[in-house]
Design a protein that fits this description.
This protein is mostly helical. The protein is built from five helices and three strands, in the order H-H-E-E-E-H-H-H.
Length: 168
């Protein structure tokens, strides 16, 4: 008998697709207009990778260990490095002369400051490339002491050592 072609259900997809095409055309026209006027900064990029890695949004909650690791890892200008890699292994963007980079103390890998700061902001404590700990063995004791002091627990229980299980 065949399929009846006069139902409204067949018109709705065509109408929907036509509407999407018109909206796409309007978006393209607005993008072109903004580009011609030099206002492309007000347009959202088509994909997340088209933005440069700076500035980086760091999560609002920052752990104490993340703050201490950021203090320990040195920040240098890319142009000051001798024989550096061509690109950051996190974002895959090439380094430029004035970029701030962090050279990890244990493994000596180099990343954009913002890329490593974002990594550390998610409470990661190892190199994103080789998983070597950020804190060298000889500094681990001092790091743990500073972390313990920053937690405020010694101050809270300082007068009551028996409260945390210590006997005098």
């Amino acid at each position: 008998m065949g399929f009846p072609a006069g139902y409204s259900e067949l018109l709705l997809p065509k109408l929907f697709l036509s509407t999407l095409n018109v909206l796409g055309l309007i978006r393209k026209l607005i993008t072109t207009l903004f580009s011609l006027l030099g206002l492309q900064d007000f347009i959202e990029p088509d994909n997340a990778w088209s933005d440069p890695p700076h500035p980086v949004r760091i999560p609002e909650f920052q752990s104490v260990s993340a703050l201490l690791i950021r203090e320990i890892l040195p920040v240098v200008k890319f142009s000051d490095l001798v024989d550096p890699p061509e690109s950051c292994a996190v974002c895959l963007y090439e380094f430029e002369g004035e970029d701030e980079v962090r050279r990890l103390t244990n493994c000596r890998h180099i990343f954009h400051k913002g890329c490593v700061d974002r990594w550390v902001g998610y409470d990661q404590k190892t190199c994103p490339l080789c998983r070597t700990p950020f804190i060298p063995e000889d500094m681990q004791g001092a790091f743990n002491e500073r972390l313990w002091e920053a937690s405020g627990i010694p101050d809270f229980y300082g007068d009551f050592p028996h409260a945390i299980g210590y006997d005098l």
